[in-house]
Amino acid sequence: MSAIGSFLVTLASLAVVLGVLVFVHEAGHFLAAKWAGIYVHRFSLGLGAPIRALTFRRGETEYSVSWLPLGGYVKMASREEEATSAALEGGTPTAVVPPDRMFEAKPVWKRMIVILAGVTMNAVFAWLLYSGLALATGEQLVVETRVGMVIPSLVPPGAEALRDLRPGDRIVSVAGVSVTTWDEIVDGIRNSPGELIPIVLADGRRLELRIHSDAIKERLEASGAVQPFVAPVVGQVVPNQPAAQAGVQIGDTLVAIDGRPITQWWEVSPLIEPHVATPLVLELARGPRRLTLRMTTSMERITDSSGVHREVGRIGVGPALPKSRIRPYTLGGAMVEGWHQTVGASTQVWRTVRGLVSGRVAGRELGGPILIGQLAGQTARLGLEPFLSFMALISINLAVLNLMPVPVLDGGQFMFLLGEAILRRPLPLRLRERLTMVGLVLIVCLMVFAFWNDIRRLIEAFTRG
Question: pLDDT for 261-310, tens place per residue?
Fold first, then answer.
């Protein structure tokens, strides 16, 4: 795909993700406001003045797409019209509204429901997506608990004990929970509570990782540093590459490369890569037969994890997928699995926020709209299922972040209402305005910082490439 085509896919994917999720969020506020009997002037996708060609009225409410493609809003009738919000919401409305239809005229508990309806809809939307994906695909489990390799460069501080694992070691429990699939091993390392993660092996050895549950990046690195055993069976042969030209077939088992025995797939690349456009002898088993094939490797230029460019040898083969099983879900089971994934995603977002506050997650890890667009484009190119899963994750992000007690967010507005419920009267308008201004400054600073991180990543990627 050309650079322009890739950019257009990324842009379209970002528009779909943000457009759908903003609509879902604002629809929650809108439906709750209608239920509460609050007069709604306008439902808008985008901020600012409506685009007249994309605006229509039904009943008392105007539905529109506005000029500034950053979020959306539901313009409810209020006795406390603010100049800043009026500008972002298309100006001060002129319609005459009955006093009992004003936002402030409704009981506090109804206003709380209206404020929280947006994040609730985002959470429900994510749950439905996760449930639908679970029902459609079932659960694919890698039925393997033997260790294939440990990637030293990925082992984070606190997980040094992983270096003691040897190829063929069988893991029997992680964090005190028995495991029968690799998925359970990964989940145990990533999501077990507390700081200590004990790993017990079949030979009785016990390893201990010490990574705080809020250190999300380190947990992910630790789970990725250990890879499952993969048999040296060919699952892919690239046409017109050396292996295909020499006669390698899918299903062949690699036995040796240049006389060096092979016991698992992870040993293949380190033996082939040093041979750049040079002869290579491949020994393999095809059923009961043993074959010896000779070929000359091709050359590929790669950039390793440290940004160094180098040339490596390739023969054009890939492994057969590890043994796995697919466990289908019933409708009820899919809904339960969707709930578990929703709770897990929201917990991970909360742990990330908590880690940022505590310093266990670096501020450099924050991403803004550019990173979201890049990830949206990447998942869209992978297919519908990864794209919908990514959309569910972003929906949960929006829900959790909107619940933060910052006045310009839903969580902050809920705190104002909670204070009103406790004091039996609204908080002073001047106090709310000042707190809102502080919250707005905080959000703008956070957005600028996240945007700068996005630009920094682009610059670093450009200089490496």
Answer: 998 888 888 899 898 889 999 999 998 899 999 999 888 887 665 667 78
10-20 confidence digits (pLDDT tens): 888 888 898 89
| Residue at 142: amino acid letter | V
Last residue of a domain, one of 319, 336, 352: 319
Beta strand pairing status for 171-174 and 139-142? unpaired
Q: What integer pLDDT is reported at residue 84 of this predicted model?
A: 47
Whole-angstrom distance, CA of residue 185 vs CA of residue 226: 10
| DSSP code, position 89 | T
* 111-129: average pLDDT: 96
Cα angle, residue 112 at apex, residues 21 and 69 outer, rounded to 5°: 30
Let me know whether 245 and 306 are in one domain: yes
Domain of 201, in residue numbers = 142-228
Domain count, the chain: 3
13 and 112 in a single domain? The answer is yes
Q: What pLDDT score does 119 carry?
A: 95
Structure tokens at 292: 């010896």
User: Within its chain, how far is the Cα of 193 from the centroid?
Assistant: 20
Q: Is there a contact between 42 and 65 (Cβ–Cβ < 8 Å)?
A: no
Give me the chain's average pLDDT, please: 87
- Say whether both 255 and 182 belong to one domain: no
> Residue 284 is encoded by which pair of tokens?
């393999």
Q: What DSSP string describes 261-322? A: E-SSGGGHHHHHTT-SSSEEEEEEEETTEEEEEEEE-EEEEEE-TTS-EEEEEE--EEEPPP
In a domain, 345, yes or no: no
Compute the half-sphere exposure of residue 252: CA atoms within 13 Å on the CB side of its CA. Answer: 24
As beta bridge partners, residue 74 has 43
- Characterise 9 by phi-psi region: left (phi > 0), alpha (psi -120 to 50), beta (else): alpha
Is 33 found in the same domain as 8?
yes
pTM: 0.72
